[in-house]
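Please fill in the sequence for the structure shown.

STRUCTURE ENCODING:
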């Protein structure tokens, strides 16, 4: 067995996946897959007693525990995992329905079956889900405190973050306060606002692609699921349910949201700089502009171009040019971290649409950005490359297309008058440059 997998030293404070496995070959395969696919090393235990000792000594370092079926029923292990809230994944070649039923009564987060590479892939996938679940917040809505507690217990055992509400009114308040909520699980019969009404209210603001909703009910009326879904729910769950069904439906909806986020990211982000692309800019800029002006704020459109960028590509190669583009993009984004749409329009050209309380001082903000780029050194193959920017600004209260056209014209002035400067119109109407 490799030294990497033998090491269970946790004195460095790093997180680990506890693996209780006596088959060293299988343990090594699991350990290597965990490092490769999840980015976390394993801590190997060869007995229940050793596993319990690791958890008790380093409870904050154990992200999850992988347990072979033969050890899954060990009370001392399960009590320890429950006490320190370490989710357990039980794995084996196959389980009968009877065995699965028994496992469902235990404090176990997931049950994985398979053989060989398939088993390893499923085990690692389950652990990876636990790690990513820590970034997902779920809102549980039910007037029954005992039901809320049960749902919270099930979901936190899978590392989901969970918040609670006793009715639809409380739920809407939480949704307005917590933009991180990705999934709502709601009962139907509740005081003040029932589940159907809650779903309708949610859909006035959030689409199915932005916020998933699972309706639940103890009634056996087959039309309940239809009513929930036609009112805007993504899914429905009939009470009573086994926790495995809850996990399947929750995981399915979270996976769906994550896939949509990935697709949106591919559609709206420039792959090189990770800034917004032209498509995102033009799909969102009009609303951004209107909302700012309704609030009495000033909007600035900035057209930005890297000076003599072709020379960088011709002299040092396109790989070096890509490094420079990423460096410049980072500086621009860092100067406008909020209240702005920062995008790469193509090539060496960028556009920033930013919100300000006043037009005064806007040119200075962009000149600070220009100066930061001028002072920065980008290391490429041992060479320190330096570039400059030309910037054209427009804060005129005109439509978006006219703003971009005016900013582009002032960018042209900056280029023609020597580059490495910001050209803007002052409140008095004069064209001024800085740089």
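FILLED IN BY: designer on duty
SEQUENCE:
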């Amino acid at each position: 067995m490799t030294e990497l997998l033998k090491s269970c030293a946790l004195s460095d404070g790093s997180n680990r996946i506890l693996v209780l496995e006596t088959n060293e070959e299988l343990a090594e395969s699991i350990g290597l897959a965990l490092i490769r696919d999840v980015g976390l090393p394993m801590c190997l235990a060869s007995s229940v007693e050793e596993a319990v000792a690791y958890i008790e000594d380093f409870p904050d370092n154990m992200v999850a525990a992988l347990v072979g079926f033969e050890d899954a029923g060990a009370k001392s292990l399960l009590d320890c995992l429950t006490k320190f809230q370490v989710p357990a994944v039980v794995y084996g070649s196959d389980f009968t329905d009877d065995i699965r039923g028994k496992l469902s009564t235990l404090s176990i987060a997931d049950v994985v079956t398979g053989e060989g590479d398939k088993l390893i892939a499923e085990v690692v996938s389950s652990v990876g889900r636990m790690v990513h679940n820590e970034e997902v917040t779920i809102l549980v809505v039910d007037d029954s405190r005992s039901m809320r507690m049960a749902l919270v217990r099930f979901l936190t055992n899978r590392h989901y973050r969970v918040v609670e509400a006793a009715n639809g009114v409380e739920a809407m308040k939480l949704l307005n306060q917590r933009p991180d909520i990705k999934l709502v699980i709601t009962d139907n019969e509740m005081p003040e606002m029932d589940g159907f009404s809650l779903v309708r209210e949610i859909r006035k603001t959030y689409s199915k692609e932005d916020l998933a909703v699972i309706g639940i009910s103890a009634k056996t009326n087959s039309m309940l699921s239809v009513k929930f879904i036609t009112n805007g729910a993504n899914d429905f769950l009939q009470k009573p349910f086994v926790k495995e069904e809850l996990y399947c439906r929750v995981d399915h909806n979270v996976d769906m949201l994550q896939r949509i986020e990935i697709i949106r990211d591919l559609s709206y982000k420039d792959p090189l700089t990770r800034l917004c692309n032209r498509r995102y800019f033009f799909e969102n800029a009009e609303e951004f502009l209107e909302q700012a002006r309704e609030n009495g704020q000033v909007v600035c459109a900035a057209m930005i171009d890297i000076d003599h960028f072709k020379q960088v590509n011709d002299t040092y190669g396109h790989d070096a040019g890509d490094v420079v583009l990423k460096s410049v993009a980072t500086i621009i984004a860092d100067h406008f971290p909020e209240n702005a749409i920062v995008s790469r329009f193509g090539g060496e050209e960028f556009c920033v649409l930013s919100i300000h309380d006043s037009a005064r001082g806007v040119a200075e903000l962009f000149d600070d950005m220009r100066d930061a780029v001028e002072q920065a050194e980008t290391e490429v193959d041992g060479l320190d490359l330096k570039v400059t920017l030309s910037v054209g600004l427009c804060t005129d209260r005109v439509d978006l297309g006219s703003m971009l056209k005016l900013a582009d014209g002032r960018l042209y002035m900056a280029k023609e008058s020597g580059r490495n400067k910001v050209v803007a119109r002052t409140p008095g109407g004069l064209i001024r440059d800085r740089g």
